[in-house]
Amino acid sequence: MNASTDFESWTARLATAIAAALREIAPRLSTESVALFAVDCHPWQCCVGPAILTGDELAENRTLAEPSHMAEWRYYDFASELEAGRLFIPLGEEMRSAYYQSEDKPATAVRFLEACAVAATSPQVAEALALLKRRRGFRVSVTHPDSDQEFVVRG
Q: Which of 154, 124, 116, 129 is nearest to 34 (CA)?
């Protein structure tokens, strides 16, 4: 584990970035229901970002709710197209650096996924999610991309 990684600070900055992205995308989604909100996290690829599955997408294809299909969502990595997207860049870079400097890469990956789960369920993200029209059964998910282990599943 990279001793210089301050996971508490990283998590707080991630929560701020997620909340900003959700507030920015909310007007675009004003007429759509949201079935699932996820944080996609690949520490080895410098990739961390939010994704949204709409109710219409889920109604058309139920398998889209499976984490392995997240890249097929219309609003996958939606922050990359927003002003708030710039907030995720240093977070991804820090995460990748910590991952590759770690002596225990699998444990480091899990630590970042756990941090994503904490950020995704933080009060500021919950407040931003409240701006969206959430479909019945709405949930929040952070899933390990290799094992499909879910670190958070909340409605």
A: 129
Q: What is the pTM of this model?
A: 0.94
Q: 51 in the Ramachandran plot: left (φ > 0), alpha (ψ -120 to 50) or beta? A: beta
Query: Which among 148, 141, 123 has a CA at the least distance from the CA of 53?
Result: 141
Give residue 61's identity as a one-letter amino acid code: N
H or E segment to which residue 37 belongs: strand 33-42
d(CA 99, CA 113): 12
Radius of gyration of the chain from its Cα atoms, rounded to whole angstroms: 15
Q: Quick check: 119 and 11 in contact, CB under 8 A? A: yes
Long-range contact list for 146-153, CB < 8 A, 24+ apart?
148/67, 148/68, 149/113, 150/67, 151/113, 151/114, 151/116, 151/117, 152/117, 152/120, 152/121
Instruction: Flag whether pLDDT at 4 surpasses 70.
Output: no
What distance in Å separates the CA atoms of residue 137 and residue 1, rounded to the nearest whole number?
A: 37
